[in-house]
Automatic annotation (TrEMBL), chain A:
All residue ranges annotated as the Importin N-terminal domain in the record: 46-126
Localization, UniProt: Cytoplasm
Annotated family: Belongs to the importin beta family. Importin beta-1 subfamily.
Highest taxon of the lineage: Eukaryota
BP-aspect Gene Ontology terms: protein import into nucleus
Molecular function terms, GO-annotated: small GTPase binding
Keywords in alphabetical order: Cytoplasm, Membrane, Protein transport, Repeat, Transmembrane, Transmembrane helix, Transport
Name this protein carries in UniProt: Importin-beta, N-terminal domain
Bilayer-spanning residue ranges: 7-26
CC annotations in GO: cytoplasm
The species this protein was found in: Dillenia turbinata
Automatic annotation (TrEMBL), chain B:
UniProt KW Lipid metabolism keyword: no
Protein name: Snurportin-1
GO MF term list: RNA binding
Record organism: Dillenia turbinata
Gene Ontology CC terms, in alphabetical order: cytoplasm; nucleus
Family: Belongs to the snurportin family.
Amino acid sequence: RNYKSVIFFLWLVTNCFIFLGQYMAMEITQVLLNAQSVDGHVRKHAEESLKQFQEQNLPGFLLSLSGELASEEKPVDSRKLAGLILKNALDAKEQHRKFELVQRWLSLDSNVKNQIKTCLLQTLSSPVPDAHSTASQVIAKVAGIELPQKQWPELIGSLLSNIHQVPAHVKQATLETLGYMCEEVSPDVVDQDQVNKILTAVVQGMNASEANNDVRLAATRALYNALGFAQANFTNDMERDYIMRVVCEATLSPEVKIRQAAFECLVSISSTYYEKLAPYIQDIFNITAKAVKEDEEPVALQAIEFWSSICDEEIDILEEYGGDFTGDSDIPCFYFIRQALPALVSMLLETLLKQEEDQDQDEGAWNIAMAGGTCLGLIARTVGDDIVPLVMPFIEENITKPDWRQREAATYAFGSILEGPSPDKLTPTVNVALNFMLSALTKDPNNHVKDTTAWTLGRIFEFLHGSTVETPIITHTNCQQIITVLLQSMKDVPNVAEKACGALYFLAQGYEDVGSSSPLTPFFQEIVQSLLTVTHRDDAGESRLRTAAYETLNEVVRCSTDETASMVLQLVPVIMMELHQTLEAQKLSSDEREKQNELQGLLCGCLQVIIQKLGSSEPTKYVFMQYADQIMSLFLRVFACRSATVHEEAMLAIGALAYATGPDFAKYMQEFYKYLEMGLQNFEEYQVCAVTVGVVGDICRALEDKILPYCDGIMTQLLKDLSSYQLHRSVKPPIFSCFGDISLAIGENFEKYLMYAMPMLQSAAELSAHTSGADDEMTEYTNLLRNGILEAYSGIFQGFKNSPKTQLLMPYASHILQFLDSIYMEKDMDDVVMKTAIGVLGDLADTLGSNASSLIQQSLSSKDFLNECLSSDDHLIKESAEWAKLAISRAISV
Amino acid sequence: MAPHDLRRPFKRPAISDQQRRRELTLLRQNQSRCDAQNHARFLASSVLALHSQSQSPEPIFESPIVEHELETEVDSEPETVQHRELDVRQASKLGGSGARKWFAKQLMLPEWMIDVPDRFIHDWYVFARPAGKRCFVVSSNGTTVSRLRNGSILHHFPSALPNGARTKDNSGSAQSYSILDCIFHESDQTYYVIDMVCWQGYSLYDCTAEFRFFWLNSKLAETRACDPPSHYHKYKFSSVPVYNCDETGLLSVHRGATPYVKDGLLFYNKHAHYQTGNTPLTLVWKDENCSQYVIDTDSKGQIPSQQQVVLELQDDGKLITSDDLPVVFGCLDADFIVKSGLHSGNLLRFAVSDGGLSFADGKLEQADIQYLGKSNRARAFADSFSKVIFQYMVRHSPLRFDDLLAAVSSSTAKANGPSDVEMSG
């Protein structure tokens, strides 16, 4: 009996499971469909169920999703959503979330993972496009996690075996998967042998002999992502020739999407393999010229982009080597642009006539005329003077034509070539053109022409006006006329007015270091008044006109001289009143609230500029201070408007105010502190956090030891920030620097934070000591980090100087010296780090004195590094080094 | 695969004004941080000791002192004092006599060279001392003050030294100060800088002479202090060429032309710190070739027939030199002291009589001196032992320039040894 009951029990259990499994499978399909229902209530309920399922049983949830995706019996909509949810369970935009998901996947039971992967690979053979296409994306995500861990070694092999299957859709899905995979994983985790096989499969799929367009398109798109894997193959002439031939042939495919994808490959090749292009450039020119002339716009745009990208490369090379190529240069300049110059220019000038009506009102517009003019501008920067004679005939021929397209194209061509050629080459033409432009800006009947004309005037002022230009374009005689025209034009339609503001911005900027007397002084009042009027226009929200007006006002204030200081002072209550008004508005809709936020940002930005300006000289600072209390209370109200996040602009402005106010800023601290803390907690908007960290530094220097009561809170928050992997890494170096600011302000009171700050500095120092194998971006970041760490050490040493507690720093001295030695040995620090590092050596010697003398004498830094810095050409490095030498000399000789 | 957006910025400046505001803010913050660090580095590290006397102050000297007598005396006031530490900025704020007393203590004073030191060629520098008034030049808070050895102000003027004038472009923190050890040379109205004590607030007291001279030369060159006088720079400064104590060096300073009138040679030990008061690690030596004032003159500028010395009278009637460890030259009778109305601490003038000075084991054994009277009111200090001896030797068996040269060449020969013959043919 016992035996029988056990059997029965097992039967029962098994059936229950089967039943449950079936129930769940049916259930998930319905839930997935419901989650896409038009009925919001149904949708919400379904989303809830999915969430619950995921939380209660993650492996089961993922398994049933992969089963759903793989099952040919299920509706396409539920399969597709199952795949998307699966994909989102593997990856996220935010760095910290992504990290969590990766860890979660890796810790799943391997049987579960294998089952899911099997389902995914199986789905690739599905005839349903949505199913196999979703599966290929999910496979790539899994590959992105597992390949770097040396897991799923059989993936690439099994994908490649699919390639030879007959059904075209399997081949297509497999090529797509390979493409997505190359996008997800970095080339160094795939063996060259496998890379070769992938590339062979992809390039074969692209070949003209491939009859199926879907396969050929998938292959071409896959190549785009696989190009980064082809470093070795591009150094092999035969393989490179083959790849290039196939890509070029694909640009001639009858299918527009394939042509577009093939040109995308060419654009990518132009930047990745610039130095390999010489044998193909003539053919590519012919192909692109034909596409620009005849092909459909998406293809023509890519063809133009190819040349823009070549310009980017050559501009970079020429900037880096200054045109002086020796055997040492990494990449030589092949002067592709110069060689093709006349043909390229005439090809691009043709495109300028293909404008769209009203393209200036459309923020997202991008068409062949815009791309052509942009490329022309890049060419001017690449070749300089040589472009001028090639463009001038086009301008002269078209600028007075009755057809607005010709006038606009001529003006746009002129504006485009103003950056690059020498002022000597341009000035004579600009002198003639200036009057014509001023007159066109007032009289031309076409808004498009006026928009481009105002923009061109701005470019003239940006590149040909300023203290570095020898022959001034703007003289005593035409200054008044220029300003009159620009102020007049600021009353035009928003897009034209916005460009006029932009021109005025650069006009003011040109007088930045004009000395004590500015030619703008007589017009200052009128300019400011006109800009304020623009900000009040009903249509100032269009074409970012209001923003442009405030930005121009900021620049006019920044570049103003003592002569107009009283007028800048008068501006303070005006802007304060504007800010006050934004705070009075009640019961705003979310749309209105957003506008209010934006306006408050602009006004706080403007106040920040004014505070910085007036605070920079003693007499104006003194008068300005009468407004300090009111301004501060406005800023606090701006903060109070926003519940969770702190207004970045208000924070920047408060930093400027603290700098100007000095020790008196202490009276605002009690009220301000909570917003300061809030800013430091803002991980999501890391710019806000970064700005707040900077403001902590401002306040430290303003208050000095009066900041002490707030330091516990600030330090706690900063330490939290440092240990968070949610926070954008760019904020971490300034946080270290901020430790230094705090220590310098509170001196030996920093004692209680040493036990927290020092180990963090120490481990960050160890991480940043070596950069071997890092790319440029990583090296740059490492140097920022080093600089932050070193500034912290400097501040801490100087803070403790002459205090009875300097001994507390002794235990850290040897590590810090080792850190200096190791970054010296690494030979990849930049000048800023060098200056800070040698300063730290001095600070250490200065504060620890004879106690550290033997440590110092043993260190490499006190010899080779110091000597190298002493003979540096960089004045700042030399100065720091001399100081360090002095401090060491004292420490050793005492 | 995501669509590749190929739009480029169109009719837009490369950076937004907001980005510009951020960048300008970062620039300002970085600059402020550098300023704060520099301020910390160069401040408060040079606290000089002010010994404020509990005893009644010395008489304040109104008339300038005969300049060649200024050189080598030191205040022998015992340090029975309450110590107060002041830095030079605080000291500058002291009232007249306080400041004078404080500054009077701050100069390093050479002993007279009575024999050639060991390792002369290796450890010593030499330069020709400009004739003129030895003084401290302090620049801070937009002004420059020079003070003579007795603390009285020589000039109050704007200079191109750091913070030495109220000009806009003065670099460094406004409170930072610099102290130079100078000799004011009357005929070309130039301050010759012979040592640097403090630069932009950073003290060099604890640095070796080698380092101080390096620092002096490189830092002075960075300012415009050596430029000809102008509105914000009333007097020219100049450094003095310093040589190693080898044959070339000695010949250069002794025979070579200088833009200034020479008054002897100064020798600095390379490893010595700046030590206030008398020190055997700086030495002065003179002969007729390089000084007008080899033998002391009286107040009328005449060389007395007998050597005169100034000694300080002690409570017990002993007559002592101004050295830290005073040397006793003799003793006055209590009767004589009372009869002549003398008091302890008086500086008394004596003539060295025919009996002269006699020595045993390098120490003074006997001195035949004769009382002449109280010394000039301008005298602040008794003579130092080395000065008395040097003056005595000048009159009897001087240490000649050739002796210096010989010391140098013998040490060269010794250093080279037999295996390393220098070809000089």
